[in-house]
Design brief:
Its EC number is 2.7.13.3. InterPro entries: HATPase_C_sf (IPR036890), HATPase_dom (IPR003594), His_kinase_dom (IPR005467), Nitrate/nitrite_sensing (IPR013587), TCS_sensor_his_kinase (IPR050428). Keywords: Kinase, Membrane, Phosphoprotein, Transferase, Transmembrane, Transmembrane helix. The longest helix is centred in the middle third of the chain and has 90 residues. This protein is an alpha+beta fold. The protein contains 16 helices and 8 strands. The strands form 2 sheets. The protein has a 5-stranded mixed sheet. It is 69% helix and 6% strand.
């Protein structure tokens, strides 16, 4: 069976679900908002550890690509070759720096950024092979340029991944600045292709690069905000840039200007400086946005926390108040069930008048007030039912007493007539029949007394002086129909107090009759008595089928604590009478198994009711008080 839970636990559980949901939602909102702030604050860190090293490495690769192109076309002088090897050293330095910083940033980067880092490192691993083919003269100019382009494309891909940020305006401007940086990358590719005397295929690629670069610049300038646009517009509108455009047209036409390398290199340097300035400006923009987001997160977190705390306080107060009201209702219900109604029923059974106070259940909840009123109605109904039951029991008891008194009167008159007939009878057979009729009358008198006992009254039969216990037991056996099967063993010479003789005779007679009824007709019922430490013990033993342990336990409980008489339970009428009589005189009656397989009833009479018989004592006097029988000796019918 599942363990029951208190109403307080269930109310707390009921309130806990929305509260936990609210707290969880608050934590999620705070975490997301704080995450946005931390993401913006980490933008500068990513710029320092990834974008700056990547930009530096791109610049060095652009210079190495140009020097490598000069080596490929076989027009490089010794100084140019030395310059190319020096540039390779600078590239290697930038590559190593990038590798170190990228490893530091790998743990705090997103999966997409880590993928781009791996791609860049893979492309950089090809750099040695590219240089070897150039030095061996195995790589034409276009494949050489494409090999360097692949590395640069990987680095720009990393920059675009790093630029991803939750703040859309900053992300859009970062994307445009990266595109302008890629436009500068296209310009350096133009420089590499225009080294020497480009052929038709080189001019086609040059034309594509020029178109792509101009498109990127035009598109970026249209979408850049004012501060960033001013940096770029100053370059685009400069005479150097306009001169560059004219040179590009000349190269496309097949006439390469002599000052192309110098002019393009100077403009590329200017564009790179503008790129650096724009990147620094974007990095600085992220910090105040991050601070604003963090302040918003703190305000939101504080407001949410206040709301959560207020909700918890209100919910707990309402839950405690409801729990107290339900606890009061529970206490009132338990008081009605365990105290008030049992006391009312007990007083009514004792014939006392009762006055039940009204049941009030304080509370502000309508349902609890309704339940309290319902309990008050139930209490009133139960009291009315108990009163009705008490009146019914009193009426039944009165009927029992009236029937018993009338029967006693008729039986008394019958015994007087039988006594007169016995005195005048001379025929032995007629005298024997009269004795049997007298025995039947005695049994009828005992049943009438049983009705009086059931009604709660006291039978009138009694003796003034003590009566020998042996005679008491013999008198009890004489009131049993099958008295010839009863064997009364000799007993110690002790007497029983006169006022209790009638009840003890009745009690033992009921036990003997049960023993004869529930045992085979050919078996004997033995009655014996002896003095015990706490009184006088009388045992009634039969040799019947016996009772189970459960039945013995149930009957002993009834004998020790006699219940109210139930009209529907008339099969155990004798044991109920025994229990009533035993409780009246503090006599203890116990049933147990017999060694012969039957049942033994042990009657322990308290020591204060038993006395040692003296020579001056006479047999018990005739019945008196309510039993108006004439004084005569107690007749005992024994077996032959």
């Amino acid at each position: 069976m599942a363990r029951s839970r208190t109403i307080r636990v269930k109310i707390v559980g009921l309130l806990l679900v929305p509260l936990v949901s609210m707290v969880t939602l608050w934590v999620i909102i705070v975490a997301v908002t704080a995450g946005e702030s931390l993401e913006l604050r980490s933008y500068k860190e990513r710029w320092t550890n990834l974008r700056l090293p990547a930009s530096k490495l791109i610049s060095e690769l652009q210079r190495e690509r140009l020097s490598s192109a000069s080596l490929v076309v076989d027009r490089a002088t010794a100084d140019e070759q030395a310059a190319a090897y020096t540039q390779r050293a600078r590239t290697d330095t930038a590559r190593e720096r990038f590798r170190q910083l990228s490893e530091l940033s790998r743990g705090s980067s997103t999966p997409a950024v880590r993928t781009e880092i791996d791609t860049v490192l893979t492309q950089l691993a090809h750099l040695e092979g590219i240089r070897g083919e150039i030095d061996a003269g195995l790589s034409p100019i276009l494949p050489t340029i494409e090999a360097y382009n692949a590395i640069s494309d990987a680095l720009f891909g990393l920059q675009r991944s790093v630029a991803l940020i939750d703040d859309i305006p900053i992300y859009e401007q970062s994307r445009l600045v990266i595109n302008l940086g890629y436009a500068k990358e296209l310009l350096t590719r133009e420089q590499a292709i225009a080294v020497g005397d480009p052929g038709e295929e080189e001019r086609k690629l040059f034309t594509q690069l020029v178109g792509n670069r101009r498109f990127l610049i035009d598109q970026a300038l249209a979408e850049l905000d004012a501060p960033l646009r001013e940096i770029q517009v100053g370059i685009i509108t400069s005479p150097a840039y306009q001169r560059l455009r004219i040179m590009e047209e000349q190269i496309i036409a097949g006439h390469a200007p002599a000052d192309w390398p110098t002019a393009s290199d100077a403009l590329a340097t200017t564009i790179q400086e503008a790129q650096n300035s724009a990147s620094i400006l974007l990095s600085e923009r992220a910090e105040p946005v991050a601070d604003a987001v963090l302040v918003r997160a703190l305000v939101l977190a504080g407001t949410g926390l206040v709301v959560v705390v207020v909700s918890i306080v209100i919910s707990l107060r309402m839950g405690n108040r409801l729990s107290r009201e339900l606890g009061t209702l529970r206490q009132a219900a338990l008081e009605v069930a365990e105290s008030r109604l049992p006391q009312v029923v007990r007083k009514l059974r004792q014939g006392e008048e009762v006055e039940v106070p009204a049941l009030t259940v304080p509370g502000r909840t309508a349902e609890i007030q309704d339940v309290g009123k319902a309990f008050a109605t139930v209490q009133q109904t139960a009291v009315e039912a108990a009163v009705g039951e008490a009146k019914l029991r009193a009426g039944v008891g009165q009927v029992f007493r009236n029937l018993a008194r009338r029967s006693q009167t008729l039986l008394h008159r019958q015994r007087i007539q039988l006594d007169g007939m016995q005195r005048t009878a001379t025929d032995p057979q007629a005298l024997d029949d009269l004795f049997r009729l007298d025995h039947l009358t005695t049994r009828m008198r005992r049943h009438a007394e049983g009705l009086i006992i059931l009604s709660g009254a006291v039978p009138g039969r009694g003796w003034r002086k003590p009566v020998p216990l042996h005679d008491v037991v013999r008198g009890a056996s004489a009131e049993v129909e099958d008295y010839t099967r009863v064997s009364v063993s000799p007993m110690p010479d002790h007497s029983l107090a006169g006022p209790v003789v009638g009840d003890v005779i009745h009690l033992i007679a009921e036990l003997i009759e049960n023993a004869t009824v529930f045992s085979p007709p050919h078996t004997a019922v033995t009655v014996r008595g002896e003095l015990a430490a706490h009184g006088f013990a009388i045992e009634v033993e039969d040799r019947g089928l016996g009772l189970s342990e459960e039945e013995l336990a149930d009957l002993n409980e009834r004998l020790a604590n006699p219940p109210e008489f139930d009209l529907a339970d008339s099969d155990r009428l004798g044991l109920f009478v025994v229990a009533r009589l035993a409780a009246r005189h503090d006599i203890r009656v116990t049933l147990r198994g017999s060694p012969y397989g039957g049942t033994t009833a042990i009657v322990l009479i308290p020591g204060e009711l038993v006395s040692e018989r003296t020579s001056s004592e006479e047999e018990s006097d005739a019945p008196q008080e309510h039993d108006p029988e004439p004084a005569r000796r107690m007749r005992v019918v024994t077996s032959d």
